[in-house]
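Please check this today:
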Amino acid sequence: MRGLYVHVPFCVSKCAYCDFYSLADRLDLVPAYIDAVVTEAQARAGMSFDTLYLGGGTPSLLGVGNLQRMLDGLRRVFDLTALVEATIEVNPESASEDFLRSALDLGFTRVSVGVQSLSDRELRSVGRVHTAAQAVEAVSRVVGMGFKDVSADVIVGLPGQTPDSLRRTLEGLTSLSISHLSVYCLSLEEGTRLAADPPDDLPSDDLQADLFEGARSVLGGWGFIHYEISNFCLPGQRCRHNLNYWRGGEYLGLGPAAASHLDGRRWKNQADVLAYLRCPLGVVDEVEELGLKEKVAEEAMLRLRQMDEGLAADEMMSRFSKVMMEGLLSRLDSLVAEGLLTCDGSRYRLPRSQVLTSNIVLARVLG
């Protein structure tokens, strides 16, 4: 499977916690940005993809005409006739009926709504520009329009968040018949406003862990599968684009700050939209040629992010030589001996107790 990701680096304003690359209040650059995306795509003309994902930033700020122009341009360059999933991210304040109708008509099957919370106080505390009522209205609109899959983002550990307020957010969203939830723990990222001036009512690490465990418990009780470290879904509603990442598949990223992995080579575009507009093909950096051992270790690490599927060592052994697997298997068995992984036959999994400390475990898998 191969995925196509397009980064849309525009926002209404920058949230206090966000370290993703985006620009606030620069929608004047959108037409030139779309031209640049199509120019970058032309360097890979003729490629075919199984999934498409427009992320950001806030793709719903493109508007109807610009979204049409982007998709028309991509379809002229790539073969998108066999897409099994096409996702677009939207924020409540810009998820208009006209925009969503256009996305549906253009073939998008999945919408991810950046809700984060259904508490107005929690939303204001991190600079979200929508209200809880707008979020409910937007999710209801998306569901009612007939998209195949509807997902919502929720943040655990927002300032002042309590188990009750988090549960109300989850109850409010699941009552709207969404099929997927991405539940992320808030982190203080360098360079963000939240990290520079953390509020006094920011939940402690222990409370954040309790909040996440509570969310996982209630979602499980409502039939949601915890299928990846931060992702929950109803049966059959996993995000196929992201599954491709977690299974070590190939993907092409277009736009500033977008990452790619093709033919054993990995690279990332510079996080500079103005440089990208000047020269869409001249902003590549962080290029890495993956050796076979590095490829094996990275795929193992990514597969272990999947809570239920995990890593099937015998399946990997069928694709990679025993020599290539020896070091990895030794590291995996050491982690099992320490209780940091479980092993059932030849299938390794991350235990529930290690979800919030998974970065440490996965770093050791990489060696």
